[in-house]
């Protein structure tokens, strides 16, 4: 994460990048397993296939190298999107009297999460399939002060000629049943390598501070209770989501008031709002 735009990552965006191989060609099914386990199973399969033991190590190394390359392209995709966001932020800071972006975090999805998702989608975990089907391997989260800023940031990013928006989910206009609100974009951007151009999907989640706070608490509770969130907590979360939405609406109205004062010349132009 770049210096000034970085903030302490929230739990969902703080997963460490896994460092080893996706089992290219492994069939889906079974329970979630760690990278070490995948590599171990792969190596064991190679041995029982009567492969020259001297070549097993080479083949595991090859798989690890392929995986490192696979992840590298997503890292570059994240870097490119972060640069775009940084430029928007700096430009806005210099030309306007408030900053629409509070903070930005990013993460590469862990191997376990990728494999979980391939199982959920019922697809194989070979690299081309994973590349096409799992579109949130690279993730960026942008936190804004106001709802209108979230839409503004989404529009600014979507308008860039090398950013192709392949999916937009507006959970602000239409919150999820549990109260979750956020604006999600899946974008496809080119990554220019020395010998080729690759296109990668990046998931961009844009939300307000209130939405982020709620999502972080909800995530911790869901993690703790898995799928069995007690009804009183589910109701409490729904109520808190309504309170967060009301807070966003009120803050938006206050911001409009301050803006109106500004246009009448009564506000300090250097004020943060
Ligand atoms: P992580 O750890 O952030 O990667 P789909 O397959 O498209 O139907 P998917 O992929 O879940 O469903 O897409 P969606 O609904 O756009 O959600 C993508 C991400 O949004 C999730 O990623 C979460 O980060 C966040 N999110 C969605 N719903 C909720 C929610 O109810 N609560 C919270 N706290 N976050 C949510 P991952 O892969 O689940 O996790």
Report what the structure shows.
The chain is of the alpha+beta class and 273 residues long. 50% of the residues lie in helices and 16% in strands. It is built from 7 helices and 5 strands, in the order ααβααβαβββαα. It has a 5-stranded mixed beta sheet with strand order 1-2-5-4-3. β4 (183-192) and β5 (197-208) form a beta hairpin. α1 (35-48) runs antiparallel to α2 (53-95) and α6 (209-225) runs antiparallel to α7 (231-263). The longest helix has 43 residues, at 53-95. The two termini are 25 Å apart. It binds ligand 0O2.
Structure keywords:
disordered C terminus; alpha+beta; five-stranded mixed sheet; disordered N terminus; Beta Polymerase, domain 2; flat
Biggest sheet descriptor = 5 strands, mixed
CATH homologous superfamily placement: Beta Polymerase, domain 2
Mean pLDDT: 82
| Ligands present | ligand 0O2
Low-confidence stretches: 1-33, 265-273
The CATH top-level class label: Alpha Beta
Task: Tell me the number of structural domains.
Answer: 1
**How many whole angstroms does the radius of gyration measure?**
22 Å
**DSSP summary, beta strand count:** 5
Task: Describe the oligomeric state of these chains in a short phrase.
Answer: single chain
Termini distance? 25 Å
What class would the helix/strand composition place it in? alpha+beta
* CATH fold naming: Beta Polymerase, domain 2
Kindly report the spatial arrangement of strands forming the biggest sheet.
Answer: 1-2-5-4-3
Q: Helix coverage percent of residues? A: 40-55%
């Amino acid at each position: 994460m770049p210096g000034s735009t970085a903030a302490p990552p929230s739990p969902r965006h703080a997963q460490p990048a896994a460092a080893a191989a996706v089992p290219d060609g492994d069939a889906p099914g079974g329970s979630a397993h760690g990278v070490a386990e995948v590599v171990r199973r792969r190596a064991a399969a190679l041995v029982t296939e009567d492969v020259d033991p001297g070549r097993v190590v080479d083949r595991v190394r090859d798989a690890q190298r392929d995986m490192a390359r696979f992840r590298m392209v997503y890292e570059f995709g994240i870097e490119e999107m972060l640069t775009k966001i940084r430029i928007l932020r700096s430009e806005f800071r210099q030309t306007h009297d408030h900053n629409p972006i509070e903070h930005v975090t990013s993460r590469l999805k862990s191997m376990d999460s990728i494999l979980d998702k391939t199982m959920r989608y019922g697809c194989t975990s070979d690299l081309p399939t994973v590349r096409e089907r799992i579109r949130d391997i690279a993730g960026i989260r942008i936190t804004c002060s106001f709802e209108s800023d979230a839409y503004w940031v989404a529009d600014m990013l979507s308008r860039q000629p090398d950013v192709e928006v392949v999916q937009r989910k507006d959970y602000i206009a239409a919150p999820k049943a549990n109260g979750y609100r956020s604006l999600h974009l899946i974008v496809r951007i080119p990554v220019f390598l020395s010998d080729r151009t690759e296109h990668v999907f990046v998931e961009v989640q844009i939300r307000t501070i209130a939405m982020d706070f709620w999502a972080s608490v909800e995530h911790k509770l869901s993690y703790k209770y898995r799928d069995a969130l007690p009804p009183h907590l589910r109701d409490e979360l729904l109520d808190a989501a309504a309170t967060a939405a009301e807070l966003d609406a009120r803050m938006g109205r206050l911001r409009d008031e301050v803006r109106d004062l500004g246009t009448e010349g009564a506000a300090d132009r250097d004020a943060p709002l």
